[in-house]
Design brief:
With about 450 residues, the protein is mainly α. The two termini are about 30 Å apart.
Length: about 450
């Protein structure tokens, strides 16, 4: 049920006086960031079109690999190998902490370029993901060694993938006309959502026939990762100036009110967003006793809901601005997250599967709409001269804080379950109430994004 992160726009003469997408590039006297005289070389229209085409074609393969090794399939595999709330919480937090790999990624972008970084890190991820293809061998290790070895492989994969992500959004930034960012990202994401729906439907059917046999599923994802390398081999890229020292990036975020509010909002959002899918899976598998194939239905519902939102969200954000979309999607998701916890307490069997499936679909619809709006704000704030720094700085900041929260929640839940402080379902309800509070809190910084 994980959706990954991912829109830009130019100021218009109509609409709110200062919407987030209209925030000007911060003057050098305030931010120590890029100046208007230090601009990058633009790609030609033909290169931009070729870049957009390659991005759209390759991204379903990229996201299939990423979601298999960093999302629900990996979470389910860990649970099958014996992982409990603590390891699941650690895995969830590691996905966020892996964003720190983007800091050295900034230096690597300067040395080998955006495309070079993406290709190199994808290749490294393919190497470390190979043991998951022999899943039966991992199961044979037994006990904590099984899930521990799998978690080590998954950690190496996510470090490589996330380091490569340093270059992905800046690469796209050079392909997309500012006035069409929302629509471009809605199309881009619609296609990879469709690809993931097909993949996870296949996973559901396979696990129904061969419970616990995750190896072939990881193999399909592995070949998708290989296809991404082949497709992006000749992707164009827009050159940039060398990055500023990373400390200057974080100073820019702290000293610039629009950036500071944006980062605060998306940090609260990430804390909830990262935790809802894995802990929902853990609730359904460990407490409700549902099977792997039954839980996978909720994963499919996640991507169906996400795909349904993307095209209308892109159109809406480009015309009305992102701020109302950001606020209302946060508030409504808070209500849905709490409802998921209540469903786990009061429903069982088919009723629980149906209720969680519908709630996850609605949650994912709002997640996708939020994602189109927030990336439009981020691209607008990043400016044109050297956007990589601010994009990476913002992503790292929110991811690290979200990772700390996920780790604390997972370890706390493990301890409470072990101490039998309360019935397990009540503890899970408390967890989802906390996540709902984080989600609602995310709306408030966006109210002042002017």
């Amino acid at each position: 049920m994980t959706t990954l992160p991912s829109d830009d726009g130019r100021p218009s003469s109509e609409g709110p006086p200062e919407s987030p997408s209209e925030a000007p590039t911060v003057p050098p006297t305030q931010t120590e960031g890029p100046t208007e005289e230090q601009t990058s070389d633009e790609l030609s229209p033909d290169e931009q079109r070729r870049g957009r085409r390659l991005a759209v074609i390759s991204h379903p393969f990229s996201m299939t690999f990423r979601m298999a090794y960093m999302g629900d399939l990996a979470t389910q595999a860990l649970i099958t190998l014996g992982a409990t709330a603590g390891p699941v919480g650690v895995f969830t937090s590691l996905i966020s902490f892996a964003a720190l790999a983007q800091l050295p990624g900034l230096r690597l972008v300067d040395r080998i370029g955006k495309r070079g970084l993406i290709l190199a890190t994808q290749g490294i991820a393919l190497v470390f993901s190979l043991p998951l293809l022999w899943f039966g061998w991992l199961q044979g290790l037994g006990g904590g060694l099984s899930w521990g070895a799998a978690l080590a492989c998954l950690t190496a994969v996510m470090l490589a993938v996330v380091c490569g992500s340093t270059a992905w959004w800046p690469l796209l930034h050079g392909y997309v006309p500012a006035s069409r960012t929302g629509r471009f990202f809605s199309v881009l994401r619609s296609l990879w959502h469709l690809g993931l729906i097909v993949f996870f439907l296949g996973c559901t059917g396979w696990l129904a026939r061969s419970p616990g046999d995750f190896g072939p599923l990881f193999a399909v994802a592995w070949f998708c990762g290989l296809a991404r390398i082949l497709l992006l081999w000749r992707a164009p890229e827009r050159p940039e100036r060398k990055p500023h020292p990373i400390l200057a990036v974080f100073k820019t975020i702290y000293r610039t009110p629009p950036l500071r509010r944006y980062v605060a909002g998306v940090t609260f959002d990430q804390a909830a967003f990262r935790c809802v899918p894995p802990f929902t899976i853990l609730l359904l598998r460990s407490e409700a006793g549902l099977g792997e194939d039954e839980v996978m239905i909720a994963t499919v519902a996640n991507f169906v809901g996400g795909m349904a939102a993307l095209l209308p969200a892109g159109w809406l954000v480009d015309r009305l601005g992102p701020r109302p979309v950001l606020i209302w999607t946060c508030l409504l998701r808070g209500l849905i997250v709490l409802s998921i916890g209540l469903s786990g307490v009061y429903l069982t069997g088919r009723e629980l599967i149906l209720a969680v499936g519908v709630l996850i679909m609605l949650w994912s619809f709002l997640v996708s709409a939020f994602g189109v709006a927030e990336v439009k704000v981020l691209f607008g704030l990043a400016g044109e001269g050297n956007p990589t720094q601010l994009i990476v700085g913002s992503v790292v900041t929110r991811a690290v804080f979200a990772g700390v929260i996920a780790l604390v929640l997972g370890v706390t839940l493990e301890w409470l379950l072990g101490s039998e402080a309360a019935p397990p379902l009540i503890l899970y309800l408390g967890l989802f109430a906390v996540l709902a509070a984080f989600q609602v809190a995310a709306a408030f910084p966006f109210r002042k994004l002017t």
